[in-house]
Amino acid sequence: MASSLRSWLIVPTLLLAGGASSCFAVTDLDRFQKPAQSDSNFVDLRFTVRGMTSHVTELFEYRVVDASNIIQSRGFAFPLGKPDATLFIRGAIPKQNGPFHLDFYADHDNSGGYDNDRDKINDHAWRLPLDENTTNDQGAVEVVFDHNTSFTYLADPTPPREIGNAATVRFSGMTELMGRRVEVRVADASSKRVVALYRVPQVVRDSFDVSVPGMIESGVTYSIEVYTDDGAATPSTIKAYRVQQDSTAGGLDFLFSLPQLASAQVTDVPPP
Predict the structure, then answer these.
(1) What is the pTM of this model?
(2) In whole angstroms, what is the distance from residue 217 CA to residue 219 CA?
(3) Residues 136-156: pLDDT tens digits?
(4) Fewest 10 Å CB contacts: which of 5, 54, 143, 235?
C-alpha cells in the first residue's frame, strides 16, 4: 500500500511553525454563519490529538470504518504540523451499519502511507471505538486522544476497503495564500457528509496538488470546499470557497485557481 500511496501523494515541501504546541484556536467567528446540521442520517466528528511531538513532521491519516470494514470518511494532514491538532469532519459517521471505529496513524517511517505488512510495520497507529449516540452539545461525536505507545495493527483482520477512486485538487495561483493553512473538504453534495479531507498546515508554493484515494463514487455530485486561515483561525484571515463537480469513473479531479474562483467565496464553511 505504501508504494501505491506514494504514486498519488503529490504535496509541497512544507514549512513548519516552530515551537507551537497548542491546538488551533477558534475564537470570535460571529461573522461566519453557523452551518446547518448534517443530514439526519449522519453525525459529525470532532477529532483532537494531543502530545504528538514525535509526529509533527509526518503524514497523518484518519479513517472512519464501518462494521463491514468499509472506509466511510478519511483524511490526511501533511505534515501534522503541531503536537496538538483538531479536525472537524462533517457527517463523518453514518447512523447505519455500525458499530464504527476510528483508525489513525502517523507515517513514522516516511514511506508515504500505512504499512499493512505486520512483519515490516514501523508506523505508529491506533484504533478507537466510535459511538454515534454519544454527542457533545454541538451534536458531534467528540474524540480526544493523548499520544501513547499502545499501538494497533490497522490491517487486522484485513485492510479496510475503499469505495471508489481518488479525489484530487490541483492548486494554482496561490500567491495570495502563501503562509496560510489550507484545508480541502470533499462532501457528497446531497447529504453534505465529508468523505475526503486534506490539510496543508502552511502553503509554501504557488502550485501544488493534494489527493485522497478511494473515496469517490462514479456519477455523484460533490461539493469541494477550500478553507483557509492563518493557522489560528483569526477571523480577519478566514476565507472559504465552495464549488460543485460531478465525478467520473476515474474519480474527481478539480483545478482550484484562486484568481478564477474569487466569485466562489462563501461564509458558511465551518472552521477546523
Answers:
(1) 0.85
(2) 7
(3) 988 899 999 999 999 999 999
(4) 54
